[in-house]
Specification:
Layout lengths: L12 H69 L4 H16 L14 H7 L11
Helix pairs in contact: 2-3
Length: 133
């Protein structure tokens, strides 16, 4: 008698592995889709938040800019219309420079009072206690 070779109908290891990988692939695709949606929602929320923040902060920024301009105008008026002794004028100029250097008011590059020392300090090149200070 001739022996009949029986082929099992069960899935081979390769087929089982392929099925597992296909399921894993589908799962990963779903995760990617979910994460893309989450990212899209997050970006939209940040845009909304940014717009809301700017709308609320703009009046404050505008007021700060107006006050900054007003302070510069007052100092300019002091320097051009008032007569002071040399030491008093130096003291007032020092206050004006310090306000600019510390960032309390903006720098006025076109101002006579803004010298190289202020620029160096703002750039971090000149430190207190150095030979140039």
């Amino acid at each position: 008698m001739q022996s009949i070779k029986v082929t099992p109908l069960a899935l081979s290891q390769l087929h089982i592995r392929l099925e597992f990988l296909e399921k894993e692939h589908q799962s990963l695709l779903k995760q990617i889709k979910r994460k893309r949606t989450e990212l899209k929602n997050f970006v939209e929320q940040m845009r909304s938040f940014g717009t809301e923040f700017l709308n609320k902060a703009t009046p404050g920024f505008r007021k700060m800019a107006e006050l900054d301009q007003e302070i510069h105008a007052l100092f300019e008026e002091i320097f051009t219309t008032r007569k002071f002794g040399k030491q008093t004028l130096k003291n007032i100029q020092a206050v004006y420079r310090n306000l600019q250097v510390t960032g309390a008011i903006s720098l006025k590059p076109n101002s006579q009072q803004l010298d190289t020392k202020i620029l160096l300090i703002r750039l971090g090149i000149l430190f207190s206690g150095s030979a140039l200070a």
